[in-house]
Structures are given as C-alpha cells and as structure tokens.
Amino acid sequence: MSRRGIIMFTSCNYRMQLRNFRSFAMLMQFSTNSPSVEKLTMSEATAELFSGLKKGERASLARAITLVESTNMKKSVEARALVQEVTQYCRHEAQLRGEPAISFRIGLSGPPGAGKSTFIETIGKKLTSEGNKVAVLAVDPSSGTTGGSLLGDKTRMPELTVDPRAYIRPSPARGHLGGVTRTTNEAILLCEAAGFNIIIVETVGVGQSEYMVSNMVDMLCLLLPPAGGDELQGIKRGIVEQSDLLVPAARRMAMEYTSALKFMRPRSPVWRPKVKMVSARTLVGVQEVWDTMQKYNKILIESGELRRLRSNQHKLWMWSYVEERLLTLVHSSRSVALKARALEAAVLAGQLPPGTAADSLIDAFLHKLKS
Q1: Residue 30 above 50 pLDDT?
Q2: Which of 133-137, 219-223, 367-371 has the lowest mean pLDDT?
Q3: pTM of the entire structure?
Q4: Percentages helix, strand, coil for the chain, rounded to the nearest 5?
C-alpha cells in the first residue's frame, strides 16, 4: 500500500483521533501524567558524526542532513538519536550564552519566479562579509510523476555557493505539503549545531495556503513579484497574514499591501508586519530589509516572545511527528495494510464512502495495538 493510498483515507474523524493523545497513550500503556523520555544511544559512527558537527565540519553537516533525510528504518533510529543529542547541545549552548537561541531563523517564501534565490544570494553575501555564518536550506519541488527533483538552487547562487562562510543545501520536497520537506526542522537544528548563526529556509514556489515554514522559523519573509496582486489579494487570509515582512518588487504593490495590512490582525503581540520594497539586482533596499529583520529579532528576544514562539513550534512539531509516525506504523503493519487494500478497492468501487473506510482502517489499527 502506498503512502498516498493511506493519505486518501484521512478524514476529520481521523485527525480528531490523532489529537486525542490521552486515549492513544492509554492504548499504548503510557502514563500521560509522568511521561518517560527514552534515551537513545548513538552508534560509534553517529557519535563521530556528532563530534564533527560540533567542530563545524561541512562534510559532517552534509552527512548528518543526509542521515535525517533517509527513510531507511535503521538509519531513522540513528537519526533520532543524533537529533536528540543535537537538541540538548544547542539548548546548552544557548544557556551558556544567556540567550534564548543561538541562531536567527528566517523563512523566505514566495511564488515561482519571485526572485527568492537572487535575494538570498545578495543578502547572504552581505551577511557573510559582516562575519556571519549563513546556512541556506533550499527546498525544491518533486515531480508528481517520477518523484525526482532538479535541485538546481545552487546554480542561481554562484557566489554564495563558493563562500567559505556559507552553506547551501538543496533538498527535495518529496510530496510533502506546505512548501518544505518533512525533515526541515531537523536540518535547521543540525545547522545550528554546526555553528551557523543565520539560517535561511527557502521554500518551493508557493501559493496562498503553503505556509508551514512559519512554524519552523523565527521570521517569515514573503517576496512578491511585480504581478503579485492588489489590495484585495493582500486582505485574503493565508500566507500574507502569516508573514512578518513583505518584500514587493514594485512601488504600486508596496502601497497596496501596506494598505491591506491595516485590516490584518498581527500574529505576534509585539510586532506589526512591515512592507519593504527591494531590488536584489540593484541592491536598492537590501540594507533596509536587513535592518528590519534585525529589529524584529531584537524585539522578539527582549520581549521574551522568541522563547514562547520556539516552545509553541516544538509542540506543533510533536503533533506533526505523531501523524507521520502513525502513518508509518499503519504502512508497516501487514494485517492493516491488507485491510487498507480491501478498503481502497471498496472505495474505488463506490461501495464505501472515504470517511467510513477511514474509520474502519483506524479501528483495525487500534485493534491491532490492543492485541
């Protein structure tokens, strides 16, 4: 049974059962009052990888990201052990510095052709010239037919690619929705552990509803091409209301979106979204954009909002992992997979509605857990 086949059965009832973690925990014989934390042990090879990561070795960082991206079950266990150690290490480093975080995470989104790579090249070179270490996690769309990805972002950043203070990692989306990959969270942590203090996540070319990156970064910056819409488009709910900084390429658009933001409720209690016009090719407005980003980061740190934001993101990541792991468990169970194929056939034949089939599949899965 394919992953897509399982996702077909996702329904409102399914998501409600996912969020009922207490009932699920009772079935798994866990205690919700005093959850136990499983301490995973790294293998010798993974421990060596972690050591190289802390030294800032680029090769170790590349191998670590490859490890967390792997879908191999054995490597997935090693990846979880590595991420657990990296999380503790980054928290300890932040405590030593007396700061809520050791990096500034910036999400960069926008529709195809908005100039995201060109903008990253321009601002990235500026930041490295000032002594910063910049990591760029670029997500490329994957083919819905073959599953392949071009991974050509580096070709649009020729100068930043060879900069010794920068690291660019293209990764395939592999059908993951929201404009990012399923392992972007882990890749961000690995870059932090390797000493990169500014991490930029470039999403795939997105539309109104693909803003999952906002749950992974401190600041979401939305690039808007000259034909990016009018004031009414800006008022529409979606990625615009999730953005902290809008960067249009045309003066008329800057005026339209500035007006639109007046009708938006800011997502942060300490920051109202700004509009800054920029041209990455002529460098006009680049300094103003970076100054706004720095001001935002400073306000979040001083108000304590950054700590709250990161904590809330960790909770959202947990539920994201719950959904992913449950789908993996369903897929790995032979009896449940057989049941799923029978239900798929019934749905295709019109004998069962998808929602009823989803409930039946979930019941079969929970029954297997009890047995």
Answers
A1: no
A2: 367-371
A3: 0.81
A4: 55, 10, 35
Rounded distance, CA 159 to CA 291, Å?
23
DSSP tag of 49: H
The values of phi and psi at residue 271, to 5°, are: -150, 130
Amino acid at the residue 248: P
Q: How far apart are CA 245 and CA 264, in angstroms?
A: 13
Exposure b/e, 168-190, CB count within 10 A at least 16 = b: bbbbbbbebebbbbbbbbbbbbb
What is the three-class DSSP state of 111? coil
Q: Are 253 and 224 in contact (CB under 8 A)?
A: yes
Return the structure tokens found at 137: 């996690």
Contact residues for 97 (Cβ-Cβ < 8 A; gap 6+): none
Cα distance between residue 252 and residue 254, in whole Å: 5
Distance CA 180, CA 137 (A): 10
Measured in residues, the chain has a length of 371
Classify 147 in phi/psi space as left (phi over 0), alpha (psi -120 to 50) or beta.
left
- Given a cut of 60, is residue 146 above it in pLDDT? no
Q: What is the DSSP letter of 133?
A: -
**CA gap 68, 55 in Å, rounded:** 19
Separation between Cα atoms, residue 245 and residue 230, nearest integer Å: 17
